[in-house]
Amino acid sequence: MQIIPAELKHLEKLLNLIEQFYTHFNYPFDASAHRKLVAYFLTNVHLGSIWLVLSAEKEIGYIALTYGFSFEFGGRSAFIDEFFISEAYRSAGLGALALQKMQQKMEELGLNTLHLQTESYNTRAKRLYESLGFRDLQRATLTYLK
Predict the structure, then answer these.
(1) HEC string of 33-60?
(2) Residue 13 — pLDDT band, cuts 50, 70, 90?
(3) Across the beta sheet with 2-5, what order do the strands follow?
(4) Residue 131's pLDDT is what?
(5) Which residues pair with 1 in a beta bridge?
(6) Contact predicate 50/38, CB 8 Å
(7) Please, which of 27, 51, 100, 116 could form a disulfide with 80 given CB 3.0 to 4.6 Å?
(8) What's the mean per-residue pLDDT of the chain?
(9) Which of 83, 64, 69 minimizes the C-alpha distance to 126?
(10) 123-131 vs 94-104: helix axis angle to the nearest 10?
(11) For the chain, first and last CA: distance in Å?
(12) Long-range contacts of range 72-78, CB-CB < 8 Å, 24 or more positions apart?
């Protein structure tokens, strides 16, 4: 298992994985809008990066990082905005390996912290994240949508 940075040449495979993620969580998915959004993101590296999760050279998931800066956490940070492993590859430890590899890349990416969220009902995911050293800081995320 490995993770590699996604590039524009991976757009179609990436969109397929993103659609699977949105379908899994019943989020609205607009293929045309996502194609434009992901292409824009991939060509503006200051925004973040998307990492393809590969198993035996096959794309089985992805991790989308958005970059920010935190005074509280001492500098550059990343938010794991989306993390997905295809259903056929779950429960084999590949998600944990992918996150560990992402943690190992933090220094290379100049990151001090990685943040993530999970749905409040997804206790299985929360246990996985906590087993990898992520901590619930007991804060609420509030969102303003225009």
Answers:
(1) HHHHHHHHHHCCCCCEEEEEEEECCEEE
(2) very high
(3) 2-5, 48-55, 58-70, 75-85, 113-116
(4) 92
(5) none
(6) yes
(7) 116
(8) 94
(9) 83
(10) 40
(11) 39
(12) 73/112, 73/113, 74/112, 74/113, 75/110, 75/112, 76/109, 76/110, 76/111, 76/112, 77/111, 77/112, 77/113, 77/114, 77/115, 78/48, 78/106, 78/109, 78/111, 78/113, 78/114, 78/115
pTM equals 0.92
- Condensed to tens digits (0 to 9), the pLDDT of residues 34-93 reads 999 999 999 999 999 999 999 998 999 999 999 999 999 999 999 999 999 999 999 999
Residue 75's CB is within 10 A of a number of other CB atoms, namely 11
pLDDT above 90 covers what percent of the chain? 85
What is the rounded distance in angstroms from the CA atom of residue 68 to the CA atom of residue 70?
7
Q: Which residue has the tokens 């060509």?
A: 43
